[in-house]
Structures are given as C-alpha cells and as structure tokens.
Design a protein that fits this description.
Blueprint: H1 2-18, H2 23-51, H3 60-78, H4 83-105, H5 107-111, H6 117-145, H7 150-176, H8 203-206, H9 210-213, H10 223-242, H11 244-250, H12 256-288, H13 290-309, H14 314-342, H15 348-381, H16 386-407, H17 412-419
Helix pairs in contact: 1-2, 1-6, 1-7, 2-4, 2-15, 3-4, 3-7, 6-7, 6-12, 6-14, 10-14, 10-15, 10-16, 11-12, 12-13, 12-14, 13-14, 13-16, 15-16
C-alpha cells in the first residue's frame, strides 16, 4: 500500500511542482533510480536472512528494521523541499521497503509445500491488490483535494499493521511446524528424503557466494525463461501504468483534477479485476499447471494494451484497464507460484531475492524507457502524443515476447514435485 500511495500519483504531483520543465523525465529517472536500489537490495538481504539465526527467526529482524526505515523516509519524501531531497528520500525509502520485503516473500516457500503454493500465492496477491486499491485511491483523492501529505499517514499505519500481523502469524506457524535444520529441511524427514550434498538447499550450496547465484548457469532448471517472462511482462505493465496520468493530461486533454480522479477510478477497476481473478487463478494453476495460466495472462494483456493504444475516451480507458487488471491478477498468482516451485528448498530468501530482479529490473527499464522516449519524441515531432504511442507500442512488443518465453518454459520438474505432494 505504501509504495502504491507514493507511485505514481503523489510522485507525479510532486515532480510537477519541483521540476515543472521536465516532469515526465524527472518522474522516470527518480522512480528508475529507486527501482535500481530495490533490484540490488533484495538479493543481498534475502541471502543474509537465509543465514541469520536469531530468537525472532531468520526473517523477522530484517522486516522490523526495513519497515521502520521505510516509514521514516516516507515523510522525507512527503515534505521534500527540492527535487534532490525528493530523490534521496525515494532511494532511502526503497532500501527500507525492500529490506522488509525480501525476507517477507520467503515466508511462503519456508512454510508451505508446493501443492499449496498456488493458492497461497493467490492469497498473497489478494492482499497486495487490496494495498494497490487503497493506496492509489487514497492518494488520488488526497491529491485532488490538495492535501497529498495526509495520504502518507495512512501508508505508515498500513506498514505498522502489516509488520505486527506478519510477525505474529509467522511465529505462530513456525511454532506449529517440525523444527528445521539450517538448510530449511524438517528434522522429522525420513532419511530417504534428506538432500544430498549436491542437492538444492544443501550445505554445500549454502556456501556459494551471491555472485555465484547471479550466474545463470547456477539457476534452477526453467528459471531463465521464467525470468525473461516475468521481467518483460512486468516492464510492460509498469510502463503502461506509470505515465498514464501525464497521458490523460497531455493526450486526452484532462485537467490535473480530472486526471487524478480518473486515475483513482481506473485503479479501483483494475484492483477489482485483480480481486476477482487472483485466488481462482492461483487454485487453477495448482490443478492445470502454471504455464497455461501465465500464457493466458500474456494474451489478455496484449488485448488490453491494444485498447489503451487507441484510447481517447474514458470508457475505452476503463475497458483497457479492466483487461490489464485481469491479466495481471492471473499472472501474479501463477508466476510467483512457479517461482516458489523452482527455487531450492531452504534457500528461498536468496533465490526469490534474485527472482525479484525480474520484477524490479523490469520496472526500472520501463521507467527509463518512458523518460527516454516520451518528452524527447514529443519535442522532436511537435506532438503531445507521439512519445506515449511509441512507449505503448514497445509495451505491446514486450507482452508478445513474454508470451513466447512462456512457451519455452520447461516445467517438468516442478510438476512432478507437485504430483509427489511437494
């Protein structure tokens, strides 16, 4: 919720005030820099949490520190007097938020067998979507009313509530499971199920350095094509989403008040679409397989992108947003469930931190592309819309290539894992 409160509504508003000559480029560069911090932070913190042994567990200490840092720098961003302080605040916020997120996302494979991860990923996505709807709706309303800083208080409260709830529930489930050894395997497992010294999650693998894990040759089978699919799909979604407020103002001709209001409405439509499909999609991916669901999501996203390319009216914008919402809901559940299937047991923090490079890296490239294309092409052509159309044409290509990547995925190993009950 906190990140969706900031981006794109509040950051769009504040960069327009602090950098009025080039607001689109400023938004692109600031958010891209923040995503670069996220990309670098998660694998490192995830690896550290895998190796941490503390009374609170290996994940919770990082979640506590990261959440507190994120709250402090939310207020730095909210009251930044210059564009440079705004940039520094965004970078520090991203470091805190991702320090909390890296261990948090590893809780799912830590505590659930593969046969339940599709449904659990759907539930995870459900709460992310609720944060998406609330954050963007509150931010849009407060920006339209001229009191954007007040939205930061609700975002901070949500971070605190999430930390408390996760801390309590994670420790509850940890106490109900069999004790785990340092590699994440249950001590009650039979000897036939014990990992070999070369198996994923073994002690030998745990000694590999972070640089070793960044080498594609060390990735689990199928992880490379998953990475391509995830990064391209997410880059396209973020590019379509990040600059849509300026698109409505510059191309459709809305006032800032109208654009913020419509963006709030679009966020609700997108969020409701996500809510409707996310958990059913997760359950279907458990039964039908991850790849068919991800491919369907890519194809629906292509249709939504085509609608947005031709959108000049409110109904077409909303219809395109609904299609992208459905596609994203299916994708979030099936894609993350597949990632948790592929990563080695006992090393989820490290591998899912690397997996998040696909998400954060895709977002980073999307924002850079927007900054490099929109305002320069508009100036070159003397048009208010040429740069947006160029960017949205690239997102269409990204969806098509991500669909191709799905067809290359080898899912045999994790399918057999599910059939064996995890």
């Amino acid at each position: 919720m906190a990140t969706n409160t900031l981006d794109p509504v509040l950051l769009s508003l504040w960069v327009a005030e602090l950098a009025p000559a080039n607001p689109v480029t400023a938004l692109a560069l600031i958010t891209a820099a923040g995503l670069l911090v996220a990309t670098l932070t998660q694998p490192v913190i995830g690896a550290l949490s895998d190796r941490t042994r503390a009374s609170l567990g290996r994940r919770l200490p990082y979640m506590i520190v990261g959440t507190l840092l994120a709250i402090v720098f939310l207020f730095v961003v909210a009251f930044a007097p210059t564009i440079w302080i705004l940039l520094l605040g965004v970078l520090a916020y991203q470091f805190g938020a991702n320090t909390a997120q890296a261990p948090w996302q590893a809780l799912l494979p830590d505590q659930l067998p593969a046969s339940l991860r599709g449904a659990a990923s759907g539930l995870k996505s459900l709460f992310e979507i609720l944060g998406f709807i609330l954050g963007r709706r509150i931010a849009a309303d407060m920006a339209a009313q001229g009191t954007p800083q007040t939205a930061i208080f609700s975002a901070s409260a949500a971070l605190i509530a999430t930390l408390v709830l996760t801390s309590l529930t994670a420790r509850y489930w940890r106490g109900r499971r069999a004790p785990e050894d340092p590699d994440g395997e249950s001590e009650t497992s039979s000897s036939s199920e014990s990992p070999s010294k070369h198996a994923p999650g073994s002690a030998q693998e745990a000694r590999l350095s972070i640089s070793d894990f960044l080498q594609r040759s060390n990735w689990p089978r199928g992880f490379g094509w998953w990475f391509v699919n995830r990064s391209l799909f997410w880059a396209a979604i973020i590019a379509l989403n990040t600059f849509v407020i300026f698109y409505m103002m510059n191309v459709i001709g809305m006032t800032s008040f109208e654009a913020f209001r419509l963006f709030g409405d679009l966020s609700v439509v997108l969020g409701v679409s996500l809510l409707i499909i996310t958990i059913p999609a997760g359950r279907l991916s458990d039964k039908l397989g991850r790849r068919p669901m991800i491919l369907a999501a890519c194809l629906v996203a292509v249709a939504g992108n085509l609608l947005l390319l031709g959108a000049r009216t409110r109904p077409v914008l909303i219809l395109g947003g609904a299609a992208l919402g459905l596609a994203t809901g299916v994708f979030l559940s099936a894609s993350w469930a597949l990632a948790t299937d592929l990563v080695p047991r006992g090393m989820a923090g490290r591998y899912l931190g690397i997996a998040n490079i696909a998400t954060a890296g895709g977002s980073f490239l999307a924002r850079l592309a927007g900054g490099a294309l929109i305002e320069p092409i508009n100036r070159l052509t003397g048009s208010q819309e040429a740069g947006y159309l160029a960017l949205y044409s690239l997102t269409l290509v990204a969806f098509v290539v991500s669909a191709f990547a799905v067809t290359r995925l080898d899912v045999g190993e994790h399918r057999r894992s599910r059939e064996l009950g995890g």
